[in-house]
Amino acid sequence: SPINPAGAVRQSAANFQSSSDRVLDLVSAQMRQFYFQNNDYNNDGFITRDETHVAKDGTTILDKWDLNRDGKASFEEFDKARSQGASGVNRDSIRRPATRMWERINTDQNDHLTREEVIAYYISFYDHLDDPRVRNYRERAQRNAVDFFVKNDSDIDQKMSFSEYEDAYAKQMLSTLTGGPINSPI
Fold first, then answer.
1. Adjacent-strand bridge partners of 72
2. Cβ of 158: how many Cβ atoms within 10 Å?
3. What is the pLDDT of residues 16-45, one digit of tens each?
4. I need a labelling partner for 39 at 20 to 30 A (CA). Which of 76, 117, 155, 172 fits?
């Protein structure tokens, strides 16, 4: 049977979105794991009242995390509580800020970022500086922008789709959270 190019493009876009959803789900799960570990100060596998801030009214965030009301939150309880809702750490909590940033970088408001848009965004941070070193900063920013673009243009089509961008955004959020390198425009 003949290949339908329009159908292939739609399928490719659907595959990218599905792939991006998996990346965002994986990154948000890793972020929840990191948050749990950083709240379990004694590393016993539970977050207790002693490990949380108690408000003047006696409430604590543990009240939201301790789903079985036994006075402590296991990772499973914490993960379930933190993966849901508007204040959760989930796909949507990554996608919302990624969308806002995408809109700032994507100056022509089409369905992809170009290398030039990414470079322009990176170097724009130095436009207002009146410093002889700005030229060096701008050159380094341009190199970082090109590096970011090349690493994240997954299908190597010289265009970064929103799915490619939000995957990069999510990975950068996790890297920043865990003390990794910061080299993307988020």
1. 48
2. 11
3. 556 789 999 999 999 999 999 999 999 999
4. 172
Predicted TM-score (pTM) above 0.90: no
Separation between Cα atoms, residue 74 and residue 134, nearest integer Å: 50
Neighbours of 10 (CB within 10 A): 11
Pairwise CA distance, residues 138 & 142, whole Å: 6
Region of 109 on the Ramachandran plot (φ > 0 left; ψ -120 to 50 alpha; else beta): left
Orientation of helix 162-177 relative to helix 91-105, angle to 10°: 120
Closest CA to 118 of 128, 108, 133, 131: 108
Q: Residue 171 carries which side chain, given as an amino acid letter? A: K
Cα separation, 67 vs 162, in Å, equals 36
**For 118-129, how does the pLDDT look when each residue is reduced to its tens digit (9 = 90+)?**
999 999 988 877
CA 39 and chain centroid, separation = 21
